[in-house]
Design goal:
about 850 residues; alpha/beta; seven-stranded parallel β-sheet
C-alpha cells in the first residue's frame, strides 16, 4: 500500500497530511504500508511503527512538471499488484495515470482520494486565480482515470459522478479516521468564546467569520473569536490572510479577536477548554476533521450547509447548521450568545457517526483494462491540451500572416527570421500549418476540377456504396468526400446520412451540397448505427463502406479491397491497416484475425469493405448501441452466422485522431462495451464455446514434436516448424528427438513466461536446456521483451534449437512499413484473458 502525498503530519502542515498519517498507521498492521512524501524542500521523516516514509523531491512550481516528477518517483518504487492512493489536489497523479504503462503501474490499482479539488475551491474563492485552470483540469482527469475514487462522505457523489462522469461503481464512501483529542477540563468563559480551527484562508471562510462577528459587535453583543491555525494567502488582497482580517477588524474591535497561529495537536485541546463552540465558517469542506474532533470532545459546532456535513451534522448531533451566508452565520452566533442553554443542550447530544474508515481497504479495486487506461489517457490528454490552448492569446491578423505570402518568401521567413520575430509569432502563426492549409485547398480544387470536367458520370449499379453519417460536425467532411472522388476504382456512389443535425452551419452546408454520385439522406437523430443502416438500406452497391465523416480512404482502397473480397466468397468483409493522422502520425496494424481474440476485444478497423448480402442476413448494425462498439458487435454477429473475413496487409484507410472523439470515448469505457457485446451473444460467450474456441485458436503452448510424447494441458501439436503458420499457441517449445519429456517442466516454463510479460524466452538449467519462446516478439520489435528466465530443472532440450523468436505469420510488420512513420501494433493479448474471473 503506497500513499502518494505532498502533505504528511507532522512533517508538513495540512489536513490531508493528518488523514494520510492516520490511514497509513491504521493499515500498517494488516499490510505493508509506504508513504511517498513529495516536496521541493528536504524533509526528514519521523519514525513510525510499521510505516516506511520515503521522501522524493519535486519542483517548487509548474503543475505538469510536478506531476511528471511524481510519476517518476512512483515508478521507482511501485511493482505490479501494489495499490496506490494519490491525493487529488494539484493533479499530482495526472502524469502517472495518463502514462501508466510507460511507468510500469498499469497493473497497480490506483485510487484517488477526494480531499479538496481546485474545481470546487475556485467556485467559493472571492478571486479565482487564472493559473488554476490547469490544475483544475488535471484533477478532473485524475478522478476520471483512477480505478477507484474515495470520497469521505456521500454528499460528494454528485460532483464525482454527475459533474465528472465517474462510474458509480468506482466511487467508494470511506471517511478518514478521526482520532479523538485529549479532553481538557472544561472552563466556563467570562464571555461567549468561539474557536475557528485551521489555516486562515478565503476558502475556509475566515473573512466571513470576521464579517459575522463585526455584525454582532455592531449590535453591542459581547463575545470573543479565537483563530487557531497558521496564516494563509489571500488572492483577493494579495496579502497574508491574517493581515487582511486585521485590516477588516480595525483597531476598535481588535481586543475581541485572538490569532493563536499554528498549534500542535497535542496543545489543541487546551486552547479549546474554555470555548463556547467551534465554528466552521468554510465555504468548502471535503470532510472537516476539526468539526468531528470538536464533537468527540463534547463541544458544540457551527457548520454551513455543505455536502461535507449533509446527513451528519444537525442539532440532534450537537451542531447549529446555517445556510452558508454571512447573515446566516451572524444569526447562528447570535443564538449561542443569547441562549447559554442552547450550548449546554448541544454538548449533551451524541457525535455524528461518519462510518468505518477501513471499509475501502478490505478489497483492492481491479486495475482498469489496458485499453480503457489508454482511452482514458487519450481523452484526458486532449482535454488538457484544449485547456492549455485556451490560455494562449492569438491575434487574427498575425494568424493570417503567412497566408498572403508567396511560398518561397514564407519558407524563408520561417527558417531565417530573427529570433525575436520568431518568438513573437511562435504561437500565432505557423508556416507548416499554412503549408498544410494550402495543400488541402489544392487537393480540394483538383477534385472540383474533375467534377466540373464531368469525370464522374452517374452509375446505375455501382460496385460500392460509401456510407458517410454526419451529425453537426462537418469540419473534415470536405476531405472525407474528396478521398472518395480520388478512388482509382471507377464504380462507386456516396450516401451522406444526416443524423438529425441541428447546427445551422452544417444544415446550410448539406443543403448546398450538389455533386455527382452523391445523395443526401435525412433522419431524426437516432445515432451512428441507425444512420449507417439507413444509408446501406438505400445503397445500390453490392459492397458497402462505412466511412466516418472525419476519416478518409486512400485512392487504392476500393480497388484493392474489392479484389480481396471477390477472391473470398466465404468472407463477409475485408479489413486493412490504417494510417493514424491529425493529432498523431503513425501506422496502425491490428493483430491477425483470430475468433477467440475477437471475443476478447475488437481487432478490426471500423472502416471495412462489407458485402451487402452479409449485412442483410445479419440484420445490420445494432441500433441500440449508440455509445460505440456497434461495429464490433456486427463482426461477432457475422462470425456467429458462419461468415469469415479477409485481412489485407496494406495501409488503405486514414483514421483521423482528434479531440475527444467517439472512438476515444468508446475505448475509455472498454469494459462496459465488452459486457454489452457479450450480453448480445450469449452463445459465443458460453463456457463451452469459449473452451472450444480457445482450444482451436489460442492454446497456451505449441509443441513441435513427433506425436508420441504426452502433451501438457492447454497445448497443441505440430510436427514441423514449417507448420507454425497454421498454429496459434502463445509459446513454442521443440521436443523433437527427446526420449523423455517432463510435461510438468513444460508447464512451468509457460507459467514462468506468464508471470513475466516482458520475458522473451524461458529455459531450464540443464545442458542443453529446454527452451520455450514467446510467439509474437517480432510483431512489435520496438517493444521486444528484454528478459530471459531460467527455471531449475534437469529437463534437457534438443541439441538443435529454433530461432530465439518464433513469430506467427502476420505478427511481424511488413518490411515496407515503418520506414518513415512509427508503427503502432495491437499485441495479441491486449484485450485480456477470458479466464480472468473479474472480466465479465
Amino acid at each position: 500500500m503506497i500513499f502518494v502525498t505532498t502533505e504528511l503530519h507532522p512533517e508538513t502542515p495540512g489536513g490531508a497530511g493528518v488523514v494520510v498519517d492516520a490511514l497509513a498507521g491504521g493499515l500498517a498492521g494488516d499490510r505493508e504500508c509506504v508513504v511517498l512524501l513529495l516536496s521541493p524542500e528536504e524533509l526528514t521523516p519521523f519514525e513510525r511503527t510499521g510505516v516506511e516514509v520515503v521522501t522524493s523531491s519535486i519542483p517548487a512550481s509548474g503543475f505538469l512538471e510536478r506531476s511528471r516528477a511524481v510519476a517518476e518517483a512512483v515508478a521507482s518504487m511501485a511493482s505490479p499488484g501494489d495499490r496506490l492512493e494519490i491525493q487529488d489536489f494539484e493533479g499530482i497523479g495526472y502524469w502517472a495515470l495518463s502514462h501508466r504503462a510507460d511507468h510500469g503501474i498499469d497493473q497497480c490499482a490506483v485510487t484517488v482520494r477526494f480531499h479538496g479539488p481546485y474545481d470546487l475551491l475556485a467556485d467559493v474563492m472571492e478571486t479565482s486565480p487564472e493559473d488554476w485552470d490547469l490544475p483544475r483540469a488535471m484533477e478532473r482527469e485524475s478522478f476520471r482515470m483512477a480505478d477507484q475514487v474515495i470520497i469521505p462522505v456521500a454528499g460528494h457523489r454528485r460532483y464525482i459522478e454527475e459533474s465528472l462522469g465517474v462510474e458509480p461503481d468506482r466511487v467508494v464512501v470511506s471517511p478518514p479516521p478521526v482520532a479523538p483529542l485529549d479532553t481538557a477540563r472544561r472552563v466556563t468563559p467570562p464571555v461567549p468564546t468561539f474557536a475557528v480551527i485551521g489555516r486562515l484562508g478565503e476558502m475556509k471562510g475566515s473573512q466571513d467569520m470576521v464579517r459575522a462577528a463585526l455584525n454582532l459587535l455592531a449590535d453591542g453583543v459581547e463575545f470573543r473569536v479565537r483563530f487557531i491555525g497558521g496564516d494563509g494567502w489571500s488572492p483577493t488582497s494579495m496579502t497574508g490572510m491574517q493581515q487582511r482580517l486585521q485590516q477588516m477588524i480595525g483597531p476598535e474591535h481588535r481586543d475581541h479577536f485572538e490569532f493563536e497561529g499554528h498549534t500542535g495537536r497535542e496543545q489543541l485541546s487546551a486552547y479549546l477548554a474554555d470555548v463556547t463552540a467551534v465554528v466552521i465558517p468554510s465555504r468548502f469542506e471535503s470532510f472537516c476533521l476539526a468539526a468531528h474532533e470538536a464533537r468527540l470532545m463534547g463541544l458544540p459546532v457551527v457548520v454551513p450547509s455543505l455536502a461535507a456535513f449533509t446527513g451528519l451534522f444537525n442539532e440532534a448531533t450537537g451542531a447549529v447548521v446555517y445556510d452558508g451566508s454571512v447573515a446566516g452565520l451572524t444569526e447562528a452566533l447570535g443564538r449561542l450568545t443569547s441562549d447559554p442553554a442552547l450550548a449546554e443542550t448541544l454538548e449533551s447530544r451524541p457525535a455524528p457517526a461518519p462510518g468505518h474508515p477501513w471499509s475501502a481497504y478490505a478489497e483492492d479495486p481491479a486495475p482498469r483494462h489496458p485499453r480503457s487506461q489508454a482511452g482514458l489517457a487519450t481523452a484526458a490528454t486532449k482535454r488538457l491540451e484544449m485547456v492549455m490552448a485556451g490560455g494562449r492569446r492569438t491575434g487574427g491578423r498575425v494568424q493570417r500572416f503567412y497566408r498572403y505570402l508567396p511560398v518561397t518568401v514564407a519558407r524563408a521567413l520561417a527558417r531565417l527570421a530573427p529570433g525575436s520575430l520568431k518568438d513573437r509569432m511562435r504561437h500565432t502563426a505557423s508556416w507548416p500549418a499554412e503549408e498544410a492549409r494550402r495543400s488541402r485547398q489544392a487537393r480540394l480544387d483538383a477534385v472540383d476540377r474533375l467534377i466540373s470536367a464531368g469525370a464522374f458520370p452517374e452509375v446505375e449499379e455501382p460496385d460500392a456504396s460509401v456510407i458517410v453519417p454526419v451529425h453537426d460536425d462537418f469540419r473534415f467532411l470536405e476531405e472525407t468526400l474528396a478521398s472518395v472522388y480520388e478512388q482509382t476504382h471507377p464504380s462507386w456512389e456516396i450516401l451522406l446520412v444526416d443524423d438529425g443535425s441541428t447546427d445551422v452551419a452544417c444544415l446550410a452546408y448539406l443543403d448546398k451540397l450538389k455533386r455527382p454520385r452523391l445523395r443526401v439522406l435525412h433522419q431524426d437523430n437516432q445515432g451512428l448505427p441507425a444512420a449507417r443502416n439507413l444509408g446501406i438500406s438505400r445503397a445500390r452497391g453490392r459492397f458497402v463502406v462505412p466511412l466516418d465523416s472525419d476519416d478518409e480512404l486512400y485512392p487504392e482502397f476500393l480497388s484493392t479491397m474489392i479484389a480481396a473480397l471477390e477472391a473470398r466468397p466465404d468472407a463477409a468483409y475485408a479489413h486493412c491497416y490504417a494510417r493514424l493522422y491529425h493529432d498523431i502520425d503513425a501506422i496502425w496494424i491490428p493483430r491477425p484475425f483470430n475468433p477467440y481474440w475477437q471475443l476478447l476485444g475488437n481487432g478490426v478497423v471500423g472502416c471495412v469493405l462489407l458485402r451487402r448480402e452479409a449485412w442483410e442476413k445479419s440484420g445490420g448494425y445494432d441500433e441500440t448501441m449508440r455509445s460505440g462498439n456497434e461495429d464490433w458487435e456486427l463482426w461477432l454477429k457475422l462470425m456467429e452466422q458462419g461468415w469469415d473475413q479477409v485481412q489485407v496487409a496494406e495501409v488503405l484507410f486514414k483514421y483521423r485522431k482528434h479531440d475527444v472523439s467517439m472512438s476515444v470515448d468508446t475505448e475509455s469505457r472498454f469494459e462496459d462495451g465488452r459486457r454489452m457485446v457479450r450480453d448480445r451473444h450469449p452463445g459465443l460467450y458460453s463456457p463451452s464455446s469459449l473452451a472450444d474456441l480457445k482450444k482451436k485458436w489460442y492454446p497456451m503452448i505449441t509443441v513441435i514434436g513427433t506425436g508420441g510424447e504426452t502433451l501438457p494441458a492447454d497445448s497443441e501439436l505440430i510436427r514441423s516448424p514449417d507448420e507454425l503458420g497454421r498454429s496459434w499457441g502463445k509459446y513454442v517449445v521443440d521436443t523433437r528427438g527427446l526420449t523423455v519429456v517432463d510435461t510438468t517442466v513444460v508447464t512451468e516454463l509457460a507459467e514462468a513466461l506468464e508471470g513475466q510479460p516482458r520475458a522473451a524466452r524461458a529455459r531450464t538449467s540443464a545442458d542443453p536446456p529446454m527452451l520455450m519462446t514467446r510467439r509474437w516478439n517480432l510483431h512489435d520489435p520496438e517493444a521486444a521483451p528484454d528478459l530471459d528466465l531460467v527455471i531449475e530443472a534437469e529437463q534437457t532440450g534438443p541439441s538443435f534449437s529454433l530461432p530465439d523468436l518464433v513469430p506467427r505469420p502476420g505478427w511481424a510488420t511488413p518490411a515496407h512499413l515503418g520506414r518513415e512513420l512509427p508503427v503502432q501494433r495491437q499485441p495479441p493479448e491486449e484485450a485480456g484473458h477470458i479466464a480472468d474471473p473479474d472480466l465479465w
